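How it folds
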Amino acid sequence: MPNFTNLHTEEKISLSPVREFIPPKYIKKKQKKPAVKVNIYAILKFFVITVFVLLILNLVVIMSYKMNFKFPDKFNFDREDSVPTYFSALILLISASILGLIAILKRKEKDSFTIHWSIMSLIFLGLSIDESVSFHEILTEPFRSNFQLSGFLRFSWVIPVGIFVIFFCISYLKFFLALPKKMKVLFFVSGAVYVFGALGLEMIGGSIYKGNGSLDVSAQSLTYMLVTTTEETLEMSGILLFIYSLLQYMKAYKPKIKLSIC
């Protein structure tokens, strides 16, 4: 008599691999993801040309003040709500973004300096925001009125910011010394150019500023205008050199991110 006991029993059927019966030409090979290509030269060339154009337009604005002809003062380097200000904010934001990307890559590798890259990214993000809305100017009046400051310390926000810069340099000394030799030079020069422009020339500008209570930049002397022009030019130059430094660092650190210089 037939045995029907296993008629409804589920059995697992072992199937031979299908790939063995498919011709190789029909099997899709896993393709490598293309490397990210960034042309450093093209990017920096564009930014350098932009700085040069802004500088020329700023000089034309200064001439318009002194020669009494009309020209849009939105290109004045000493105005807060100007095209050069927003450009500086943009390149600071780009610096913050690159620093953030490096911090993410470092975090994946559990690098001991991950926190340093992350904090720098936040600092540059703050600088970008401050460049747009001028939070640092809020510090000027309390310091100047309470301590009767004038001359080189007329723009007294340089005091707390200067203290912060010193603290930053001390706390980042180990990080700096761990950088490759070329990066040490690039980081130091770009930082020195930026700080000298932002703090050094700001103090010089404060010493020759006409303290008549007027906020009209056109009422200032030609010397003051040229000092502020140099100040902002150095700031922008320092930021662009720092961006170049970061891209060079990424090129050496992550070869799969192809950074072309020509």
